[in-house]
Design a protein that fits this description.
The protein has 436 residues and is α/β, with parallel strands linked by helices. 39% of the residues lie in helices and 22% in strands. Strands 3-4-2-1-7-9-10-8 form an eight-stranded mixed beta sheet, sandwiched between helices. A six-stranded antiparallel beta sheet has the order 12-13-11-14-16-15. A hairpin with an 8-residue loop joins strand 9 and strand 10.
């Protein structure tokens, strides 16, 4: 069995929903994971904000507007009157439940229940279309088998046991359809996976059922060797090692979230990135690829803050770094890059929520300087240190760009440099010119 995940743009209209079903029927036995229709989750979040602010009239107006969009989608998607009637009933039921939240106080629990309506809508409509076209399919409720623990991480054992039970109880179908993103928490309440959303669902389910392959369908033909928004003539990377894909995803490649790689990697299941608009394109396959001795791709991560701690107390002192890292751990702030010298350490973070408290505590160790609006440029490939010359090529490509930090050797797949925001595009273009 293959797992096929389709993002919001892939199910963003009735026409695209039909296209998704055509793609699914080409693959045989499949478990299909759907996101909400593009724009729906954002609309539901806005509606939630209006409800929380007691702007009931505006909330109802937005609800009506979104409901009309779905009514039109039902009429464009379904042809037979009996299925149109069922589709309109689905819309009426879900939006009726949504209206019940207006005019009453709501908390985080209710917010997550509201946001979950997006995936429930898209899967219910696609399930009806599959039935109308005579496909041997069944809709499964993701909240019956997707669960997170108290720490917010997926409960992998629970997921594996429950999806196995669910599939066994629904034998004989060619297509199993379910929601991405949504789940239940340790209290049994509706919740979501947050990071990576539907991609994460697909990877977790693929690992749980030992799938033949996990396919992530988006509106881009695979992971490109640079950001096509800023660099001309980029091209898809046909093969990536799991570690290379994780590095690119973490450092800015938007097509895939870094958390999505881990379950597939652990289960050694290939992940294929494909384009619903160009379904016959090769895309990118991610697996335990053999070393290629090449540089594969470049990515950039924005909104980075660099913090430098300089202290003579660090000289020959053991335990200094531990104390510094404990401050970041205490304030739940992860570090992206780190460089050290005898009397100083520089780190980067991408979250300034607790920066004032962090800087206050760091200042006890010495002088602290901060550089904001920075960008991490990440060069990814087979960068084993024995593969001579790659780091020289990267540095040479950026010889005219002021570089704040360089990180090399912490990974066999990544060289990272930190530059100013205004130097981002120039850096990406120069690296492409020199490396490809």
């Amino acid at each position: 069995m293959k797992v096929m995940k389709f993002g919001g743009t892939s199910v963003g209209s009735a026409e695209r929903m039909k296209n998704v079903v055509n793609l699914v029927t080409r693959e045989g036995n499949t478990l299909v994971v759907l996101s909400a229709m593009s724009g729906t989750t954002n609309s539901l979040i806005t509606i939630t904000d209006r409800i929380k602010n007691a702007e009931t009239a505006e909330a109802l107006r937005l609800i009506n507007e979104l409901e009309n969009k779905y009514v039109n989608t039902v009429r464009e998607l379904l042809a037979k009157e009996e299925y149109i009637k069922q589709g309109l009933t689905v819309i009426s039921d879900i939006f009726g439940r949504l209206r019940e939240y207006t005019g009453v106080p709501i908390g985080l629990k209710q917010e997550k229940e509201i946001v979950a309506f997006g995936e429930k809508l898209s899967t219910r409509l696609v399930a009806l279309y599959m039935q109308e076209t005579g496909l041997n399919s069944v809709l499964l409720d993701a909240t019956e088998f997707m669960k997170i623990r108290e720490d917010g991480e997926p409960d992998s054992d629970y997921i594996k046991n429950k999806i196995t039970e669910t599939l066994a109880a629904n034998k004989g179908y060619d297509i199993y359809l379910t929601q991405g993103f949504i789940c239940r928490n340790h209290l049994g309440e509706i919740d979501n996976l947050q990071r990576g959303g539907s991609d994460y669902t697909a990877s977790l389910l693929g690992a749980a059922i030992a799938a033949e392959e996990i396919q992530i369908w988006t509106d881009i033909d695979g992971m490109h060797n640079n950001d096509p928004r800023f660099v001309e003539n980029t091209s898809p990377v046909h093969e990536l090692h799991f570690e290379e894909a994780a590095e690119l995803a973490y450092f800015g490649a938007k097509i895939l979230h870094p958390t999505c790689v881990q379950p597939a990697k652990s289960a050694n299941i290939p992940v294929r990135l494909l384009n619903t608009m160009q379904p016959d394109a090769n895309g990118t396959v991610i697996y335990n690829a053999k070393p290629t001795h090449t540089i594969k791709a470049i990515a950039a991560k924005d909104n980075i803050t660099a913090i430098k701690i300089k202290s003579s107390r660090m000289l020959l002192a053991y335990g200094f770094l531990r104390k510094v890292f404990e401050i970041f751990e205490k304030h739940h702030t992860s570090i992206d890059m780190i460089t050290t010298s005898e009397v100083g350490v520089s780190v980067t973070i991408d979250n300034e929520c607790n920066i004032d408290a962090i800087l206050s505590e760091l200042s006890e160790f010495g002088s602290v300087t901060v550089d904001r609006d920075m960008v991490i440029i990440c060069v990814v490939g087979d960068l084993e240190w024995q593969n001579r010359g790659f780091e020289a090529k990267v540095v040479d490509a950026l010889r005219d760009v002021p570089v704040r930090m360089i990180s090399y050797g912490g990974s066999n797949y990544n060289i990272s440099v930190l530059v100013k925001k205004e130097d981002k595009v120039r850096s990406l273009r120069q690296l492409s010119k020199h490396l490809f």
